[in-house]
Design brief:
Blueprint (H helix, E strand, L loop, with lengths): L1 H27 L3 E2 L11 E2 L2 H16 L8 H20 L4 H17 L20 H22 L5 H19 L3 H21 L8 H25 L11 H8 L1 H16 L12 H8 L3 H22 L5 H30 L1 H6 L9
Antiparallel strand pairs: 1-2
Amino acid sequence: MDVILLSFLTAFTLTYFAIPSIIYVAKEKRIFDEPDNRSSHHVSTPSLGGIAIFGGVLFSIVLWTPFGEFNQLQYILCAFLILFLVGARDDIMPMSANKKMVAQILAACILVFKSDIMLTSLYGLFGVVEDLPYWLSAVISVFTILVIVNAFNLIDGINGLAGCIGSLIASTLGCWFILVDHFEYAIVAFACVGAIVAFLKYNFTPAKIFMGDTGSLHIGLVCAILVIQFIDMNFHLPEGANFKLGATPVVAIGIMIIPLFDTIRVFVTRILRGYSPFHPDRRHIHHLLLDYGCTHMRATGILLFVNVIFISFVFAFHNIIELHLLFCTVLIAATALTYILHNAVVRKKWDSSPLQHQRKPQPKESTV
């Protein structure tokens, strides 16, 4: 247990003291995230915070992980390094989405084919319990990693959101790995949490620095690794083992609900409107909350609270509600909450529009 605390403190300390120097260099070299019509910020802000997060996590993992007991670590670190290089390049000089996707696919393939971080089955979802063919398992695993990585990249739109959600997910999964004696993944989880917590001190409003793609891609990759290993390891625990959960795929969806559901919802709505799923817009849930009148921190707090509610729900009912019913309940609840929020924003905009005021009946002038 001591090594878990040490991994957290090491990543926290290194990140905390590295960020002021990064802010200074970014300002000297004028490496800023300039606001535009889609931005939620109005001041030029350094966007290299992910460098400190990556450095803190990498140093902590290398220092405290027992390499002899974690033979997959070298490949995980290779995947980390690929996304770090691409993210840093994009934060300094933006690059095309296609090039970033190629790098993400390469990192995902390293994890799947070299580290065996794979979803070998659907674990009862859609009635599939038996092992999948290797090629299909590889395709689903790579796709899952890409979805989770891009989900964190897409929710990184307001102060504190990606960091708070990432630390919540990583700490939740990290605690489970501790309970089942997989300390190697717990070290990865809590090293990431330590680095994020240190970063958040500088990212809360008024933000002094953003994590940029370097940070969001790295957090997404860590969470993807933890989620896939959580699902697969839990499935292979012997029946009756302590802390073996039922309906594991749905529990994982509940843990990941904010980034996962928001990404899928935005992609679907963009396609239905005739746009590319990667076409930028302001249709994310955090944008809806801002349009409703919330501040950055209030919007982040609301979404963090909602994610906690979903995590509590799936952990409380994983053995009580049948898998597919729990799956439908989670999706319906997430859809309903988003629908209510969207309608509230539309009503607020309509009530405050000049056209609405013009259409209100005016009192007749007295003829007396």
